[in-house]
Amino acid sequence: MAKIMIVDDDLKVTTLLKRFLSAIGHEVTAINQSSKAIQTANSTQPELFIIDIMMPQPDGYKLCGLLRAIPAFSRTPILIISAVEQSNSKATSFGANDYLTKPFDLDELAIRINILIGGAKIARKSLDPSQ
């Protein structure tokens, strides 16, 4: 399956997501300090990011922008998961591909992840037909 990186300052959320996503076959890296996200991303090269919005600096919006500025992650799917319900358009304007409001259904999360990862693979193939 896919390499996924979760960035959320809530240990309970990262633990739940890591257990669930690992159980369905993904390789998961979870961190609780957004300040370490870029360094961790560079070392793990995830195929998908799951990011909370409301975190100590950099918050999720800023982190999206920072990731999009790195060529290796400019097209990597980003899924925002947040308790802030009215931030979908703001999140996508900062570079996120999708948005899910807490609390969320784990089956819906799995579906959205599969769609995002599938879309990213199709985009990579269109850029490089040898893949």
The major pleated sheet works out as: 5 strands, parallel
- Measured distance between first and last alpha carbons: 16 Å
Radius of gyration, whole Å: 14 Å
- Tell me, what is the CATH class? Alpha Beta
Strand content: 15-25%
The tally of structural domains comes to: 1
Specify the helix fraction band. Answer: 40-55%
Low-pLDDT windows of residues: 122-127
Mean pLDDT across every amino acid position: 87
List keywords for this structure.
131 residues; alpha/beta; Rossmann fold; 44% helix
Layout of helices and strands:
Layout: E1 3-7, H1 11-23, E2 27-31, H2 37-44, E3 48-51, H3 60-68, E4 78-82, H4 88-93, E5 98-101, H5 106-127
Parallel strand pairs: 1-2, 1-3, 3-4, 4-5
Describe the structure.
The longest helix is centred in the last third of the chain and has 22 residues, at 106-127. This protein is 44% helix and 18% strand. It has 131 residues and is of the alpha/beta class. It has one domain: Rossmann fold (3-Layer(aba) Sandwich). Helix 3 (60-68) links the parallel strand 3 and strand 4 (78-82). Mean pLDDT is 87; it is low at 122-127. It has a five-stranded parallel beta sheet, with helices on both faces. The chain is built from five helices and five strands.
